[in-house]
Amino acid sequence: MQLDAVLAATLGGLLWAFGVLGKRIGVEGASDDSKQIRATITIFLYSLTTTVTPFIDLLRMDRAAVAIPLQDEAWRAQVIFIVMCGLASGLGGVLGTLAFAWAAGANSSLISMVENGCYTLFGAVFISLYFLQNPHISMYVGGALIISGTVVANMGQSCGRTRTDQTKGDSDSDSASDLSESTDEDCSVIVPTRLRKRCVVLAVLAGTCWGLGPLGKKIGVSVAPPGHQHAYTTCTYAAYISCTAVVPLCQLLVANRQKLAESLGDRGFRWQLVGTAVCGFISGIGGLVSTYAFSRASSDGAAIAMIENGVYTMCGALMIALVFKERPSVSQLFSATLVLTGILVSGLAG
């Protein structure tokens, strides 16, 4: 595997991780009634801002260079697959952001690990299947660890960052009783079992949909001739990332107008969207860099996907935990360790 491809994958994953933080910022503090609409607004804005970088790159490129992939019959034949993968990834973005919203601020860093762990696994699997690449044994071991971590996340108890403060004045027996009788509405302290399972299911579905993203980008750059990787990378990523906004846009068009107006009228939420937009712009740069990494690794697409997605997963969860001061429980730490170990083991395939 070429060193420049590995470095590009690592840098791309690091910058891309800001997207995880941006989506988490957008749904912070949302009430049960506004979670879905705020998740939709957040992912739509995030999707729009990620398109800025590739289109700026297109505008600054030489017209003759841009025309090469656009006139290439082999590349144009792949556009339909790039578009389909972009649409699926957009659906994953909606599901993943909704999982953050329902995580109640107590275990969103774990939810990030689960959805991105599934994304890492399925991204490599889809590439291996499409390009008929023989997966290394480490990919099977890593996949088993990621799945195990997801199961633990679905079974484990989630401890919120505000648990100590909220139970400080109660006796030990009263605290135990209160925690055992938590309802869906009382999710700032302990995420109830039903909500926790909902979050994990949404995270797994989101990761699976996102897994088609690396495949779409790899398909687009796989036909790039030597010396023209930049043009094929930019055109592929611009086509792909534009399609990720379609699903959240459709959701916005059919959304309840009153709830939409109430959310956008909230000054605090508007400031959160500024943070989402900044993170989306940085994430767009990371997506472009990671797509370039695929163009530099002709026969190691699955391994490149594992590297960049592993960095993305680890850094994204770490950013959330630090910014929102989340305190993971023992089961959360064990689950996250399994997922991260699975990603690292899978990376040995390169």
Automatic annotation (TrEMBL):
It comes from the Eukaryota. Residues 162-171 have a biased composition (Basic and acidic residues). Residues 199-346 form the EamA domain. GO terms for cellular component: membrane. SUPFAM superfamilies: Multidrug resistance efflux transporter EmrE. The chain crosses the membrane at residues 38-59, 79-104, 110-132, 199-217, 237-254, 274-295, 301-323, 330-349. It holds the Pfam family EamA. Residues 160-181 are annotated as: Disordered. Keywords: Membrane, Transmembrane, Transmembrane helix. InterPro entries: EamA_dom, EmrE-like. Coiled coil: none annotated. This is EamA domain-containing protein.
